[in-house]
Amino acid sequence: MNTRILAAAAFAAAFIAPAAQSSAATLDDVVARLDAIQRENAAMRQENSVMRREIAALRREKTRPEATAFNTTPPASSAPSRDLPARVSSAMAAAPAAGYVSYKAAPVAGPYDWSGFYAGLNAGYAFGRDTTFFPGIPLTLSSDYDGFFGGGQIGYSWQYGALVLGVEADIQAAAIGGRMSSASIGNVDLTINNKMDAFGTVRGRVGYAFDRVLVYGTGGFAAGRNTSSFSFAGLSGGNPVQISGSDSAIHTGWAAGAGLEYGLRDGWSLKGEYLHIELDPVTLQTGPSSPQFKYDIVRSGVNYHF
Fold first, then answer.
1. What are the extents of the domains in the chain?
2. Fewest CB atoms within 10 A around its CB: which of 122, 185, 198, 214?
């Protein structure tokens, strides 16, 4: 009996001992695995906390008036995340949809360019004197000569650094008239009145540009159309005699002066100009007179540069 009990105990010990050892080994593995999972969960919680703080910071930035499209500087209390570059790229891509405005620096304007073709309008005032000669008669009549005018001009300029060279032509409709001048020779009274209804110039220009301000001198050819009205009154054989008439002629001469022009936006410019003009005398066909004109003009105008 005792022998059988001992044998049974020995048999049970042979099977139970290995099973107990196997069970102990399996329990240790489970505990180790649980510890690893807890550490991973703790790391994930920490990372999630960092991301939440960053998201909260981005939301605060969005609510500010001066908020920018994204903020590449993480909050001081958070550690940089491993996927921060990806989130920054995503924020940049989403900025337009989120209503953020991107600002670009305004282009820097270069020096003003005076070169090229231009055309414009002008108006001004002329003042001077007209002088009428009578060939073969020691008589000269002179009077004030003034009035308004207006017209247009075209030109072309070449610019070399600050040096500006150009050529300009203008044509004017005018109402420039002389006062009635008269004289008496014996029994004959002479009366002359001059009126210029058109004139124009073709001139060169040499200027110096201070960016948008152009200061220039100018000179060249000038021409004008004048009409002279005359009257001769006297006695012939004791009877009064009066002869009157008028004649027009083109007078040529020269013009010289200076001006200032200021460049505006979109190709426009404003100008002011002074010219002295002298037109040579021309002997008229229907009357023994030869008028000459010397006058000054001041005018302002506007040009468009193409």
1. 2-94, 116-305
2. 185
Separation of alpha carbons 224 and 210, rounded Å: 34
Cα distances from 210 to residues 207, 214, 260, in angstroms, run 10, 6, 11
Q: How confident is the model at residue 64 (pLDDT cuts 50, 70, 90)?
A: low
What are the pLDDT digits (tens) for 225-272?
998 887 777 666 667 777 777 888 999 999 999 999 999 988 999 999
Q: At what angle do helices 84-94 and 2-63 cross, to 10 degrees?
A: 40
Residue 67 pLDDT > 50, yes or no?
no
CATH number of 116-305: 2.40.160
Q: Is the dihedral of CA 219, 223, 227, 232 positive or negative?
A: positive
Q: What is the pTM of this model?
A: 0.62
Of 190, 223, 176, 143, the C-alpha closest to 289 is: 190
